[in-house]
Write a structure and sequence with these properties.
Length: 403
């Protein structure tokens, strides 16, 4: 039996950032368990057709959070990253226009432009109508029926592959906030106006996939990282993991839905876990190089299985081809390299807030802290997960338990 102050479950960005922050602060009583043979979680990369491919889908390093950059640059120096100004597009009405759609309607023909503008002008939020509670009605209320019916609703049906009215609206603040005035101004000026989307400027390794920085962070932990070590059992009364690791605190970045199979979870908590939903995503590689300058392309066409294309030649130097992301429920027959991510996206259902809050409350009472995408059941980018882990580790070492 080995005893540690912290047993960290999962060596994705969250677990790695928490571990390295502990180490920086002089706390070395920790160990990280990772089921896979390589660290990185959803941000792992693999060489496919002579170039790196990110098997967890498209992940990029946002430049906004300096503490995150400071940590990651210790393992992959700034000189090894290429800065990009985001170019993402949407396939709509037989063409591609820039994202977000509200800011780039000016790229359509005049009649199409007018069609969308008229719809935006009649949107419920523009007309001062009360905000609806259902997801589908909220989208139309916010963006107008044309954008809702031709882009947002079919795209969301593809990516989540569930009844959209099971989704909540509490997370939609993430949508770019572009007013009708800004939408009209963009059409008149033939340039985008409004909120810059996430990853407006991002970094990607010059000579590697995104997984390289996480692999190096894992390697640097040496014997404090146990690869190919899935969590098979947690004895809660003694805080013992896999019968041989005793924890003062367990940091969980693994999905809560695996916990009932490895620990004695009380029935009320188990019922909350059962209400948490997630999407599985298939990443498929195609060797053709597309004629586009976009880094990635959104495709709402429901006759096409995938919802997003990643044009790796436009952000990964010397590469060719592209990969697609497809909800596994919609995947067609495999025709080349495919990697299935069983846990890709937490789904923001109406039941999620109450469910995850109850799980985290129970966990906190048992010296278990949920962090990151799966520990908080929040669809967060890797930089956000790292920032959360850094803050939690600082709080832990300074005497306050992670929240």
């Amino acid at each position: 039996m080995k005893e540690y102050k912290y047993v960290i479950l999962g060596a994705g960005p969250t677990g790695l950032a928490f571990a390295h922050t502990l180490n920086t602060l002089g706390e070395n009583s920790f160990v990280v368990l990772e089921a896979n043979a390589t660290a990185g979680g959803l941000c792992r990369s693999r060489d496919v057709d002579g170039s790196p491919l990110d098997i967890g889908g498209g992940h990029f390093l946002d430049v906004k959070q300096q503490p995150v950059l400071d940590l990651l640059f210790r393992f992959l120096p700034r000189a090894d990253w290429q800065e990009h100004r985001r170019v993402s597009t949407i396939r709509i009405r037989g063409t591609e226009i820039g994202y977000p759609i509200e800011s780039n309607l000016w790229q359509l023909g005049v009649d199409d432009r007018l069609d969308f503008l008229e719809s935006v002008a009649q949107a419920g939020c523009v007309r001062g109508e009360p905000m609806p509670e259902s997801f589908e009605k909220w989208i139309s209320w916010k963006l107008g029926e044309r954008i809702a019916e031709e882009y947002m609703l079919p795209y969301n049906r593809k990516i989540w592959s569930i009844d959209l009215n099971a989704l909540g609206t509490y997370w939609l603040h993430k949508l770019p906030d572009v007013s009708f005035r800004q939408t009209l101004k963009s059409c008149l000026d033939s340039s985008a106006h409004g909120t810059i989307p996430a990853h407006g400027v991002f970094l990607y390794p010059k000579n590697f996939g995104y997984g390289e920085v996480w692999k190096r962070m894992g390697d640097a932990l040496q014997n404090r990282l146990l690869l190919s070590t899935p969590v098979n059992k947690i004895d809660l009364p003694t805080m013992t993991v896999n019968d041989n690791l005793r924890a003062g605190t367990i940091i969980s970045s693994i999905p809560w839905t695996v916990w009932p199979g490895i620990a004695g979870i009380p029935a009320p908590v188990r019922s909350r876990i059962e209400r948490l939903e997630y999407a599985s995503i298939d990443v498929d590689y195609r060797e053709q190089t597309l004629a586009t300058t976009a880094h990635w392309v959104y495709d709402p066409d429901e006759s096409v299985p995938y919802h997003r294309i990643l044009c790796r030649n436009n952000f990964s130097g010397g590469s060719r081809g592209y990969w697609t992301e497809t909800n596994s429920k919609r995947a067609d027959a495999e025709a080349g390299f495919r990697y299935r991510n069983e846990y890709a996206y937490p789904i923001n259902t109406t039941a999620k807030p109450d469910a995850i809050n109850g799980v985290l409350e129970w966990a906190g009472q048992h010296q278990i802290t949920g962090l990151g995408r799966w520990g908080t059941w929040e669809h967060m980018n890797s930089d956000v997960a790292v920032a959360q882990a850094i803050e939690a580790a600082n709080r832990a070492v300074q005497g306050s338990p992670p929240e």
